Amino acid sequence: MENHEEAPDKVRRPVARRVLIAAVAGAAVLGGLLVLLPWERPDSRASVAAPGAQALAAVGAGVPAALPDLAALIGEREARVRAHPQDARSWAVLGTAYVEQGRRVAEPSYYPRAEQALRTALRTRVKGTVARAEALTGMAVLANARRDFRTARKWGQDALKLDAKRWTTYPVLIDAYTGLGDHKAAKRALDRLLELHSGPAVLARAAAVYRDHGWREDAAASLTDAAAGAEAPAEKAAYLERTGQLAFERGDLEVALRHFQEAVRIDPDQRGAQAGQGRALAGLGRTSEALNAYRVALAKQPLPQYALELGELYESLGLDQAARVQYDLLRERVRGAAAGGADEELILGQFEADHGDPEAAVRRLRAEWQRQPGIAVADALGWALHRAGHNEEALKFAVRATDKEHGGGVRSALYVYHRGMIEGESELYGPARRHLQEALRINPYFSPWGAPSAREALRGLGDPPADEPPPA
Predict the structure, then answer these.
(1) Does residue 438 belong to any structural domain of this protein?
(2) pLDDT tens readout for residues 422-470
């Protein structure tokens, strides 16, 4: 059994129906998405068929909307607020729709527009607290998209002060707490969410929390339920993409590839699944197909993460000039994100540590750690310190990223690899050997750059001495 720790009964409630639903769904599929807000719901077939109504229904259910429907919703709400500038709820809908559009197409220029719309909603004088709570939660959604988790936590908590039973605020807070490394608070928020609501969006959010705690079986079961309840193509495709990522993280490349391919078939705008295909195909040795998959993803959703992954794939193939093109794109996209108020210091620090200036990476990531001390930042800072030659301090952060006591319960081959390499440089040969072996057990294909390095380091360490204690 993969779980190293049992999830409490209260957390495991969505798992109860997994056998029946697995039979109906035919596969374990996942969610893990940006949750939007529950505004007015269409109450008839005619309203669902109206332009933008399907996106409004998706927003109301807390699931992703198809890009054409989302664009229609934005057009409708822009017209609405021009005609009715005091309509606070339409301003809130418009602001959050801008956030989702910016996230889906990797265009941070939508974020200032989103902020303007949401602040207009907050300034508009209306009776009651519903519109204000919606706008506050929208501001939290925006802050999460910008990777400003402290601000997201503040807006989310302000929204709960107005309406503590408003279930769609809790997923936003879970994202903020996770980004800040506060996994206990994320768990408490999930418990409350499960008390208030059910359905695919809630199950998907629960699965993400289970995954972060290393409870893979619980995550997979919750995702099976989420997939069985998914109706709209964009929603199902988002769950399939996340399921594929979960399979990739445990080294099941063929399974991951099938999920990614099905997600793209259902929703061609699911670019995360397109990049996922690149990851899986690279691990399978189908490099030409992998390169093409990454190029397609980047053409429509030019995320810095995809550019880094493609650049590293090129570099692993000895195509250094092609890699530099991707690294230049990464820098360009980070600058664009900053102009939109988004924080991409984490990905820039990761890039600088391995392909640029490690000391600059340390400076960036130290500042990022002060702002938001999440597990991903702990891992990146530890690795940057190692690359800059500061192994004693590096090990402290590497341990934090992989130590369950500090929230590092996620079974990440990359994090464990980093810890093993740092231990090897620190002459802690037994722990280094164990952690490098563990990284390759978790996922032998975790990186075209890192996995070969792990194998080479293991060969250099040789066989363990006879008196070395067995792995814990």
Answers:
(1) yes
(2) 999 999 999 999 999 999 999 999 999 899 999 999 999 988 776 666 5
How sure is the predictor about 130, in pLDDT bands with cuts at 50, 70 and 90? Answer: confident
29-74 pLDDT tens trace: 333 344 444 444 434 333 444 547 778 766 655 678 899 999 999 9
Query: Which residue segment(s) compose the domain that 393 sits in?
Result: 356-461
Where residue 385 sits, what CATH number does that domain have?
1.25.40.10
Minimal CA–CA distance to 66: which of 215, 254, 227, 269? 269
Residue 428 lies in a domain: yes
Number of domains in the chain: 1
